[in-house]
Request: fold
Amino acid sequence: MLINITFIVFPLFIYPLLIGIGIFHLPFSIPFKWFLGLIMIGFYINLSFILGINQNLTYEILDFIFILCFSVILLKLALFKFKINIKFNPSKVVYIIFIFCLLLYSLFNIIVNPIFGWDAVTIWYAKTKSIYFWNSIYNLPFVNYPNLGPTLWSYILHYSINQEVFGRLLFPAIYLFFFYEVFICFEKNINPYLLCLLSIFFINFFYNIYVANGYQDMLIFSFSGISCLLFLKTIESRNVGFGNRTFKLQCNYITNLFILALIGSIKNEGIILSLIFNLMFCIIIIHNRIFSFKFIFFTFILYLIILLMWPLSLKVYGFNISNIQGNAFKFDSFYLLLDNLDRIPIISKYFYNYFSNQIYIILISLFLTISMIFTNKNKWKVNLIFWAIFFLHSFFIFIVFYVTREDLLWHMDTAFSRLMCQHESLFVILIFYSLSNFKAKITKLKV
Amino acid sequence: MFNKIKIYFLLNYFNPQKLLKSSFLIINLILLLFLNLNYVRDKIISIKSDIYLIKLKSLEEIKKEKYKELGYDYFEKIASLIPEKGMYPTTRYKDYTKNVHLLSNQIYSQESSKLIIGFNLSESDLSESFIAYAKEEKLEKRDFSLWSFKTINDIDQITKIKIILNKNIQYKDKYCNGKIWKNREMSTHIYEFDFDIPSLKQEISIYLPNNNNNKFSFGRGSVDFIIQINCISSLSINSIEIYGLKVNLSNFRIIHNYNMNFLAIDKEFYKSILRDNNNEWKGFLYNLKNVN
Reply:
């Protein structure tokens, strides 16, 4: 068993890292390159599956890319001298050890708890198995649901052994990567001990059953969080004068759009979440005149193509996409808007309970936003954008339950908390962003 | 002593400059660990027991133990004996299907309706029983009445609809017609029935024909079925009860029992195996003796 566990290290950590470092010469940290490599692999296999390319050919090309990347890295090491500038401080060491321990804990927990939840087994693992055996798109279970999570899951099974538990480590790994990135992003502006303390608190606070049980919602949580971090990097690095700035800004922005577009390949409702995020980000980017309108328009078209990749391919294959979420939603569900007024109190009750449970996080975020408005006249707009995303997505969730054709109570009991947790990473970033600006303000005042 | 500690924390927590001091934060970090000692201890115990289990058992053994209630072990034993590759028996539970075939490492792509594995089913699940009450839908126009019911669990057949009329109302001979619709869209109906209301009767039982389709309600969650009742003149219905068969084994023969689980085979298929001297399937029937 313990030998089998070591097999996951290659597909989950080493191969994506090879791709991330070997192919992309982008100004990102090594862990971020790992993440980029991983999602590129997922995107590639997903695309190959959609296009109906043979499985052997797909994985042979991937093997070739791995070897190529490995050679490129060796060549780089031989030809150039690399300076590895990793600065460790005690808080960072504690934090990394904590993340590593939690990853191990997740691994053991996953192994002794084989997959169980209805959606996890019937939808996501069934899709994973189907992609693992490379069935035709016509034989894909729940074909209207997108495939990025199951594709990555099946990729890990392909390179380790066909035991679902090994692929599931992917989800906590991405969740923990998001929190690692949070630490890296804010370590210069927030006291590292405070950052470590709060990050550990947040990791535990948001770590729930959906992180590792095969559901896809926490994957959206992590993706949207990472996207927010890239957005902050884009708008923050605009003011920093370093060489080749435009290239770095464009890299951040395009990578951000790519990650946002992939949210639509995780779950159908991710398309709406992604559009909300992008719309809000675009407002700030256009307002701050970071990029030319032409550049924004061109990248937005590319973003839309990747975002709608799955529904468009379903259309091409002749599937009916009007009932994209099965029985629960159809486009004509919206005709029922006036018939369902009696649902408002029921849905409101669930929202009330949600706000009651998250009251501390929401109040702290609100307090920090108000503080920002009074102390930092330029940057509070970003906080406002985060709140706008939160309210718009909450409103979308409200509409989802308002028009659902399933039994309302049953549907809310089974899906409400999962849907709401998709955007909760916003609060983590909002709190840290406000704290970082608060600290910067104090420093500025002292000077 | 405690007062000093209190004062220390009060002074620090309300002093923004000290709040961001490293030494104070380290103390907080240690305090956080100390306060969550039970939590940390629980996590360590959990990891220890997990590692112990991983050392002791293989993945397959862990799966068998975890999926005991789903009948994973029994399913694997039966499915592995089936001569046609990728075929697996239909599985039936007390509530709803658990897709146990997906949990296996083997690829099972073809569900066979000729074999049924029942897990923890009782006698009442195999005979006609009460399924649900229907709830009247409020309608503005009263040309017909609509009633909705949900099954939640998987049901093979609806066998009977019992209509209970309001008391103290005398109905002379009346002719009515009813339909059961698949969902609220009311675009496809599953059953259509006619019935007369004899005078002085408050209860009408309508027996629905066996339509040989054993999947009346499968994996529906809580989507409503709709009953539409049209009568020549208005009818005052008090309630409607739905009766049905959770698992319909009328065309099946149970050929293997193990604990509370059983394997049933389609009678015609069973006869054809014996008649056509199908050696592969005969081997399957023979090997069932070794399943325990």
Q: What stands out?
A: Chain B is about 30% helix and 30% strand. The first helix of chain B runs from residue 2 to 13. Chain B has a mean pLDDT of 83. Chain B touches chain A at residues 16, 20, 22, 25-26, 28-29, 32, 43, 46-47, 50-51, 53-55, 58-59, 62-63, 66-67, 98-99, 102-103, 105, 107, 109, 150, 183-184, 219-224 (CB under 8 Å).
